[in-house]
Design goal:
Number of strands: 15
Helix content: 10-25%
CATH architecture of the largest domain: 2-Layer Sandwich
CATH topology of the largest domain: Threonyl-tRNA Synthetase, Chain A, domain 2
Strand order of the largest sheet: 3-2-8-5-6-7
Strand content: 35-45%
Shape: globular
CATH class of the largest domain: Alpha Beta
Oligomer: single chain
Number of helices: 3
Low-confidence stretches: none
Bound molecules: zinc ion
Largest sheet: 6 strands, antiparallel
CATH superfamily of the largest domain: Threonyl-trna Synthetase, Chain A, domain 2
């Protein structure tokens, strides 16, 4: 059943109420609405717990999409109780983890501004994220870190603009990633815009992001690896440079 995905309109929503609409054979839970982000576009799905009326908790190991992007399946961790269809629950996202993912995900967008090359892959993580670029240039990681931190310090606004799938199809040039599919299939696509009037960047993306670049905090490029002749893998970590082994 299609879910009302509240996280699409409010990235900062960490808790909400919901009613169980379906239980899958493997224990996966569908709800009428959710604030849990489901794995997609390189960002891992949320973890957390569902609170039952008696106060007991159902711990969630992961959140993923079902047969379509409008289906969200909340997967309980091993050995958790199963709720009943029609049961009302209070959802609690593991907020410290999600907030780190939002900061990291936004950092990946900033990196694509500093390195304006086609993106061939990306994976957002709570401790480290990686972005692969189709580029041959050699680039100094400390220089990239300095440019990233400049964008963070300038505290640009980060916000969404919605366009239709058709508008995106008519403007393929706005997609930077070569093999990560933009979030089409829901009729509307969110453009993640950075800076007033998208002065810094705008990019189709269905993930969750912070609302000002300053929230990204201290980050740095830990490593730039050569992955083939025309591929460079950038690893972003929190903290100041030099923590690496
Ligand atoms: Zn994004």
């Amino acid at each position: 059943m299609p879910v009302n995905a509240l996280y699409r309109d409010d990235f900062y929503l960490s808790t909400c109420e919901a009613v169980v609409t379906a239980i899958h054979e493997d224990g996966g839970i569908e709800l009428d609405q959710t604030c849990f982000y489901a794995t997609s576009g390189g960002q891992p799905g949320d973890t957390g717990f569902l609170e039952r009326a008696d106060g007991s908790k159902i711990t969630l190991g992961q959140t993923k999409h079902g047969s379509g992007k409008d289906i969200v399946i909340h997967v309980p961790a091993e050995g958790q109780a199963s709720p009943d269809i029609g049961e009302k629950l209070v959802l609690h996202v593991d907020w410290p983890r999600r907030y780190k993912l939002m900061r990291m995900h936004t950092a990946c967008h900033l990196l694509s501004v500093v390195c304006p090359f086609p993106i061939t892959g990306a994976a957002v993580g709570e401790d480290e994220s990686r972005v692969d670029f189709d580029m041959t240039d050699t680039i100094d990681k400390d220089e990239v870190t300095a440019k990233l931190m400049e964008l963070v310090a300038e505290n640009h606004p980060v916000y969404l603009q919605w366009i239709t799938d058709e508008e995106l199809a008519a403007n393929p040039g706005i997609v930077k990633s070569k093999n990560v599919r933009p979030p089409i299939g829901l009729g509307r696509v969110s453009l993640v815009c950075i800076g007033e009037d998208s002065a810094i960047d705008s990019q189709p993306c269905g993930g969750t992001h912070v609302s000002e670049t300053q929230e990204v905090g201290q980050i740095h490029i830990a490593k730039i690896e050569k992955k083939g002749k025309e591929n460079r893998r950038f690893r972003i970590r929190f903290g100041v440079p030099g923590d690496e082994a």
